[in-house]
């Protein structure tokens, strides 16, 4: 049978094969970029040439891989980007900043093939920062084209400190900027914040359109300090993940013990829909979230709680803790994870990604690797099934304090892990240190995914034309299924955000033209699920 679906992209088909754990975890290569100072990686996206766009902050002067001088006269940071080819060679780098301290936290693809760089800044009007400072720190976004040329920049802030931590693409083509706001000397509405503070610091959401014009803002918080760490787009709005220290205000319910995970859903206009606290009797700190194909969300971080409250699995020390929630915030399962060699007080989950072969990929920090017993930490990575069961885990290590930033599945079926490290050559790091801290990329075996689908598929699928351009339409051909079989199709981007979910119960015939121009160039995942099993594909749009 042939199905024509409204995908705004085309694909390279990646069959859902299972690999033994030893093969699945093989490191293929690594490469690093940096200057003579410290450079910290915070985000990475796949690009249409098969390479990566690496993003973070640099404290380095010009030299090494940093081609531009710093904009400040002191030791403040600037935004820094590195574009690579498919082999990990640097193609270009770009620096953006003002005379203050500018920290790049996240990056999103845009519909025109460019990117939106999102972070915080203390700069006034200077160099790339065109707006005057509103307070101690402002949200700062920079729009660039696919070659790194700046198109515009915008700032949003109050008279106090406003720290952006993440950003989410909105269905209308705009973006939701997410972080926290604090202006204790001026808690009333001021600057771009239209609501008063509830506590010492609150979550602050700023919705902008594709041109950076502010559309609305929303303050959410308890009665103390609230720190926001992640957000995802979901049906009818957004989910915000935070750490509240004092309930009350927008934080409903009572804490389970010490710190709890706090998840709040807001509508596409910022109105709070619901919120929940999740935790045990100890301290539980949220760090990362990932939208799931069924409309739910994974929420991860670390926990020092015993079995109590929402924590159902015991661990002898603080460790990575992951919860699966449905679309209404009801907990479906939870699990704890470690390296399999030792439990330490320094393990936590920091980033998540969808596994194109089914399940999820996890990465975080551990002190139970080769540096066990020292003050240093290593990178821990794992693959789990859809129900949270562990498939494999592995530690990747340099000689110093190594930390992961982003998990990026590659077009060839491998996984690239963007990290930061001050390590020189040793263990898994084969390239020398450029300075105090470098961007470091690990490419892990083809694929480093190794999770068997929950059901072995008895059908196959193909997509064409392949690859797609702005004028292509896409036809999906499925074989081996009875005509009456419903097919659930989910389209996700490289960071696991669900772009489209639909269930096909009828078999449309013929072909329909599809507007691929609305989706930026990049790599995407399509999952087909039926009672007969699951087929996963990886999508590539030029």
TrEMBL record:
Boundaries of every Secretion system C-terminal sorting domain copy: 463-535
Domain of life, source organism: Bacteria
Signal sequence annotation: 1-24
UniProt keywords, alphabetically: Signal
Database matches in Pfam families: Por_Secre_tail
PANTHER family: ENDOGLUCANASE (PTHR42754), LIPOPROTEIN (PTHR42754:SF1)
NCBIfam families registered for this protein in UniProt: Por_Secre_tail
Protein name: T9SS type A sorting domain-containing protein
Lineage: Bacteria, Pseudomonadati, Bacteroidota, Cytophagia, Cytophagales
């Amino acid at each position: 049978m042939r199905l024509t679906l409204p995908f705004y992209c085309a694909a390279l088909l990646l069959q859902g094969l299972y690999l033994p754990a030893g093969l699945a975890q093989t490191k293929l290569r690594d490469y690093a970029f940096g200057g003579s100072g410290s450079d910290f990686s915070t985000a990475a996206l796949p690009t249409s040439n098969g390479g990566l766009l690496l993003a973070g902050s640099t404290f380095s002067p010009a030299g090494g891989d940093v081609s531009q001088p710093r904009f400040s006269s002191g030791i403040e940071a600037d935004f820094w980007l590195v574009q690579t080819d498919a082999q990990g060679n640097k193609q270009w780098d770009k620096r953006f900043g003002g005379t203050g301290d500018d920290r790049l936290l996240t990056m999103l693809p845009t519909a025109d093939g460019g990117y939106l760089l999102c972070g915080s800044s203390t700069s006034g009007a200077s160099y790339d920062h065109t707006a005057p400072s509103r307070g101690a720190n402002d949200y700062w976004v920079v729009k660039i084209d696919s070659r790194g040329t700046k198109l515009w920049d915008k700032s949003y802030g109050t008279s106090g400190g406003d720290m952006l931590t993440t950003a989410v693409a909105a269905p209308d083509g705009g973006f939701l900027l997410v972080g926290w706001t604090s202006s204790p000397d001026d808690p009333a509405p001021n600057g771009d914040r239209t609501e008063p503070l509830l506590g010492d610091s609150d979550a602050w959401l700023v919705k902008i359109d594709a041109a950076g014009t502010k559309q609305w803002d929303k303050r959410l918080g308890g009665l103390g300090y609230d720190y926001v760490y992640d957000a995802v787009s979901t049906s009818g709005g957004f989910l915000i993940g935070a750490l509240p220290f004092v309930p009350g205000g927008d934080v409903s319910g009572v804490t389970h013990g010490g710190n709890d995970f706090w998840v709040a859903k807001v509508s596409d206009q910022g109105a709070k829909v619901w919120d929940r606290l999740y935790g045990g009797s100890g301290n539980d700190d949220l760090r990362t979230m990932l939208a799931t194909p069924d409309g739910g969300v994974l929420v991860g971080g670390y926990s020092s709680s015993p079995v109590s409250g929402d924590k159902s699995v015991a661990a002898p020390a603080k460790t990575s803790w992951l919860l699966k929630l449905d679309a209404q915030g009801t907990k479906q399962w939870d699990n704890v994870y470690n390296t399999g060699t030792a439990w330490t007080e320094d393990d936590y989950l920091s980033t998540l990604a969808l596994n194109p072969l089914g399940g999820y990929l996890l990465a975080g920090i551990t002190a139970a690797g080769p540096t066990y017993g020292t003050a240093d930490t290593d990178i821990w990575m794992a693959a789990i099934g859809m129900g949270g069961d562990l498939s494999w885990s592995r530690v990747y290590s340099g000689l110093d304090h190594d930390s992961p930033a982003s998990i990026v599945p590659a077009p060839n079926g491998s996984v690239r892990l963007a990290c930061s490290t001050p390590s020189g050559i040793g263990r898994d790091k084969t390239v020398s240190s450029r300075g105090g801290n470098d961007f470091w990329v690990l490419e892990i075996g083809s694929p480093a995914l190794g999770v068997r689908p929950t059901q072995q598929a008895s059908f196959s699928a193909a997509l064409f034309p392949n690859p797609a351009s702005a004028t292509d339409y896409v036809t999906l051909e499925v074989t081996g299924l009875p005509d009456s079989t419903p097919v659930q199709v989910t389209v996700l981007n490289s960071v696991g955000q669900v772009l489209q979910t639909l269930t096909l119960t009828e078999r449309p015939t013929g072909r329909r033209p599809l507007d691929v121009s609305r989706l930026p160039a990049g790599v995407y995942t399509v999952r087909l699920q039926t009672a007969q099993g699951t087929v996963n594909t990886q999508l590539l749009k030029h």
